[in-house]
Design brief:
The structure holds 2 protein chains of 2 kinds.
Chain A (H helix, E strand, L loop, with lengths): L4 H6 L1 H19 L6 H20 L6 E3 L4 E3 L1 H21 L3 H4 L6 H20 L3 H19 L6 H32 L4 H8 L5 H19 L7 H8 L2 H27 E3 L5 E3 L5 H21 L4 H21 L3 H29 L13 H4 L1 H15 L5 H15 L3 H27 L12 H19 L2 H14 L4
Antiparallel strand pairs in A: 1-2, 3-4
Chain B lengths: L3 H7 L4 H21 L3 H26 L3 H31 L13
Helix pairs in contact in B: 2-3, 3-4
Classes of the chains: A mainly alpha, B mainly alpha.
Chain lengths: 495, 111
């Protein structure tokens, strides 16, 4: 293991985010937690610099750095941009959130430090190529998430959400670490490449099965796939709304990135036909297809019964994980490209929907669907944006969600999994029902109060900023699709 | 009467013994998390699970004569400490409000 300074150039965006974290902590300390604008500004500037660095130096080839523990390639680049964008937007939307301010804004600065750390961890998750780095980056993200979930210390609900999250999170990471230790024992290697080489002999048997299942349990918890989804609604409901927006997008997407890289580099064997098939004689596509089907069906069925908008969005995010797993199941380049495309679109529309919750949370007393009654008359712009995000989450044209779902279903059909694609379409129809319950409350129920709700200017601007790509990507999607295809080329070894 | 001397000579502690110990600890930890309702005991059970990970890593590392496993053990220790730190801090926060550490009492977030 050696470290050269040329590595530092490849690790630039991550290094900047790490530094941003330290500066945010320092800024908060120096101003004694009174000038929140210092850590807030530090985070925004740091994220912007990191974004510029990443955009200026897109990786042209796959490059392993830091003792082969981290790989910077097109795949990492795609997720870097996505995570930096998510961090930037969620930092902005949290600025005037009541729940983040707390009673006296005493701790608001710490939020931005944690957001920087979270972003750093997520970027490394997408890049790690060694189980040591996998465990560390995942824990960096998890532990930061636990603190964020309990950020509203004055609220018992927030503390309860954090406790549930940390308890089951610790269990799931222990299970995953046990699986990783088995991989190490089976192959004698900690790097993904080494594991792949060690497994190519075809031995392993029962121990390999347990190892894969345990690692899947750990990742399944992070992305909230059934049967490891039970924490999601509680945490999204209890945690402050901006934190729920982060959880629904960031760590979940990072979990997908980690899963794709781990499975494709360490476990998938590239046979002569150019198709990809998992090692071992267990029918992995079937196992994954059943998880995917169960995740989307259960998420949608549970969402129907919800009256709280936040719980509804939590279950809908579980359903979306099911749709995205569909693209992962087929183990083909097309399927993966569809997953990447959908992750990007999903981040935009889900943050958009949560942003409406954040904006209204400051003003409207409750978060039941009935509390949104008459929003279409009181705040036409916000209601229209919410409607757009809901349409996109359902997957109706002309929105980005439609294109994303189309690619996912097409990839499943192409691989012969027609039943899964049809189940996906049926689930989308079901989801239309509960998304439209919110729309009906907004437009067809007369408001109890009249007059404008009076929302923060920043939230309105941010809503429009998120709505534009939701619409534009619905009619002009090929650049993003090409970007997703291109990002995968280095990972899948196609040049 | 069994010949204890020869039994001792034939008994060699190898990889499988360490792995058996590790599996036992992991199972005890898992059962503890599932069946105990005291959050503190649940956290202790998680620590048991992480300890079992460490035992198996060290055993594999020694068996394979490779130091990478030891490195991972050090990180797992650090992670376990950090997780316990955050978990207990959250629990203290809850205890201040509710005066209990029984997990069944925390049911505000339910359908």
């Amino acid at each position: 293991m050696n470290f050269t300074w040329s590595d530092a150039a490849y690790f630039g965006p991550e290094a900047v985010m790490g530094l941003t974290f330290l500066l945010c902590v320092l800024g908060d300390l120096v101003t004694r937690g009174r000038r929140h604008v210092v850590p807030f500004g530090t985070l925004l500037v740091g994220t912007a610099i990191s974004l510029v660095l990443a955009l200026l130096h897109p990786p042209v080839s796959s490059h392993a750095i830091l003792g082969q523990m981290v790989v910077v390639d097109g795949f990492a680049h795609f997720f870097r941009l996505l995570f930096l964008g998510i961090t930037f937007v969620t930092a902005l939307l949290s600025w005037s959130s009541r729940e983040i301010m707390g009673r006296d804004r005493e701790h608001q600065g710490e939020f931005y430090a944690l957001a920087a750390m979270l972003c750093f961890g997520m970027m490394v998750m997408a890049e790690s190529a060694d189980i040591v780095m996998l465990a560390l980056s995942l824990e960096a993200v998890s532990i930061t998430s636990y603190i964020l979930a309990g950020f509203a210390r004055f609220s018992f609900r927030s503390s309860e959400a954090a406790l549930k999250y940390v308890l089951w999170g610790a269990v799931s990471s222990a299970v995953m670490l046990y699986g990783l230790s088995l991989f190490y024992g089976l192959t004698g290697a900690t790097s993904y490449e080494g594991i792949r080489a060690g497994l190519s002999g075809g031995q392993g048997g029962m121990a390999l099965l347990v190892a894969i299942l345990f690692v899947m349990a750990g990742i399944g918890y992070k992305i909230s796939a059934v049967p490891f989804h039970f924490w999601t609604p509680d945490v999204y409901e209890g945690a402050p709304a901006p934190v729920a927006a982060i959880f629904a997008s960031g760590p979940k997407i990072a979990g997908f990135a980690l899963m794709i890289r781990f499975f494709y580099v360490a476990l998938v064997q590239d046979d002569s036909q150019g198709t990809l098939a998992l090692l071992d004689d267990v029918q992995w596509p079937w196992v994954l297809a059943i998880i995917s089907a169960a995740t989307m069906t259960l998420g949608n069925m549970a969402a129907i019964r919800q009256n709280s908008v936040r719980r509804l969005l939590a279950y809908s995010s579980i359903a979306h994980v099911g749709y995205m797993l569909m693209g992962f199941v087929v183990l083909s380049a097309n399927g993966l490209a569809a997953v990447l495309f959908y992750l990007f679109v999903y981040a935009i529309m889900t943050i958009g929907a949560f942003l409406v919750v954040v904006a209204l949370n400051n003003r409207v007393s409750g978060e039941e669907i009935d509390d949104y009654a008459g929003l279409g008359f009181r705040e036409p712009l916000v209601a229209a944006m919410m409607f757009l995000f809901l349409i996109s989450l359902t997957g109706l044209p002309p929105t980005a969600g439609f294109i994303g779902k189309f690619y996912l279903f097409a990839a499943a059909g192409e691989a012969g999994l027609w039943w899964l694609a049809i189940l996906g379409v049926l689930n989308s129809v079901v989801s239309l029902y509960y998304y439209m319950r919110i729309a009906r409350a907004m437009y067809f129920t007369p408001p109890e109060l009249s007059g404008r709700v009076g929302l923060a200017q920043a939230h309105l601007i941010l809503l429009v900023v998120l709505a534009v790509p939701t619409l534009v990507l619905g009619v002009f999607w090929s650049p993003l699709k090409e970007f997703a295809d291109q990002s995968l080329r280095m990972l899948l070894g196609g040049g | 009467m069994p010949d204890l001397q020869s039994l001792g000579d034939n008994l060699q502690v190898g990889l499988e013994h360490y792995l058996t110990l590790s599996v036992m600890l992991f199972s005890i930890g898992t059962l503890g998390v599932i069946f105990r309702r005291n959050v503190l005991v649940m956290f202790m059970s998680v620590e048991l699970m992480l300890t079992s990970v460490n035992i198996s890593l060290v055993a594999f590392s020694r068996y394979l004569d490779d130091l990478n496993g030891h490195v991972l053990v050090l990180f797992v220790l650090a992670v376990a400490a950090a997780e316990a730190g955050v978990g207990l801090a959250i629990l203290v926060e809850i205890f201040k409000k509710r005066d209990t550490v029984d997990v069944d009492e925390f049911r505000q977030l339910m359908e």
